[in-house]
Design a protein that fits this description.
The protein has 237 residues and is of the alpha/beta class. It has a single domain, classed as Rossmann fold. The chain has 7 helices and 9 strands, in the order ααββααβαβαββαβββ. The strands form 2 sheets. It has a 7-stranded mixed beta sheet, sandwiched between helices. β3, α5 and β4 form a beta-alpha-beta unit. The structure holds S-adenosylmethionine. S-adenosylmethionine binds next to α4, α5 and β4.
């Protein structure tokens, strides 16, 4: 198995000319709409997302801030891809239900849930640029999603029926926190589904694999190839 953690965290703003300084009036939505391309998602062609390309110059989003989060929302990840496909093929899982998409990134999983007939979809991310991207992507796909720029992992279970987590297990510390939160949700009677291409921190011993697909993943095959990815529920012991 590859060291997927390292490859995930190596995603950074990209090459190209060095950034101009970001000002307080920087408009992430305008930047995304201008510099990324609205493209169909491989395997889910009825969903389109603003996607980075070689001329996107994402380094400008972080400005001079070395702590700026990596622009994960600009790329396709196996965990979100597998979960979105599973929901598209099994819409009854979310139809008529309240959904939370944890770590929404581009908003792919949230959009798939909304298109599948969820009553409401809340999507959260700690990256404000992801929130801007997910908002644009939801609008481009004609669905309504409530976006929250926050870290919910240390809080109580949300008032939803099902929590979806696409590709959130890419970092050991985050994986530990996410698992604890999702187990609390499960104990509170909330369904939990996780999508992941078997990254190293994925706690497979606590999970039950219910489906597998071959999907594209920017971190593991940026050349456009595919990886095996699973949809998991939390095992009950
Ligand atoms: C690899 S991306 C996956 C995005 C999307 N779910 C997908 O599969 O396409 C992981 C996302 O989780 C977000 N994230 C990381 N820690 C988080 C936290 N504690 N709460 C919410 N989102 C978080 C990151 O900002 C990033 O957008």
């Amino acid at each position: 198995m590859h060291d997927k953690t390292e490859r995930m965290t190596s995603v950074s703003a990209e090459d190209g000319p060095q950034p101009q300084r970001r000002t307080s009036s920087f408009d992430a939505s305008a930047f995304i709409a201008r510099n990324l391309r609205l493209l169909p998602v491989p395997g889910l062609e009825d969903i389109q997302l603003y996607t980075a390309h070689s001329g996107s110059r994402l380094s400008r989003l972080g400005g001079a801030n070395p702590e700026a989060p990596a622009p994960y929302w600009a790329y396709g990840w196996g965990g979100g891809a597998v979960l979105a496909r599973y929901i598209a093929e099994n819409p009854h899982l979310v139809r008529g239900r309240r959904v939370l998409d944890l770590g929404t990134g581009s908003g792919l999983v949230a959009i798939a849930a909304a298109k599948a007939g969820a009553t409401s979809v809340v999507a959260t991310d700690i990256d404000g640029n992801a929130i801007a991207a997910a908002r644009l992507n939801a609008s481009a796909n004609g669905v309504a999603i409530d976006l929250i720029h926050a870290d919910l992992l240390d809080g109580p279970p949300p008032a939803v029926d099902i929590v979806l987590a696409g590709d959130l297990f890419y970092d050991e510390a985050l994986a530990k926190r996410a698992l604890a939160f999702l187990e609390t949700c499960r104990a509170g009677g909330i369904d939990v589904l996780i999508g992941d291409p078997y990254r190293v921190p994925l706690p497979t011993q606590r999970l039950h694999c219910i489906a597998e697909y071959s999907v594209s993943d920017f971190g593991l095959c940026s050349d456009g190839g595919e990886v095996r990815a699973g949809v998991f529920s939390l095992a009950s012991f």
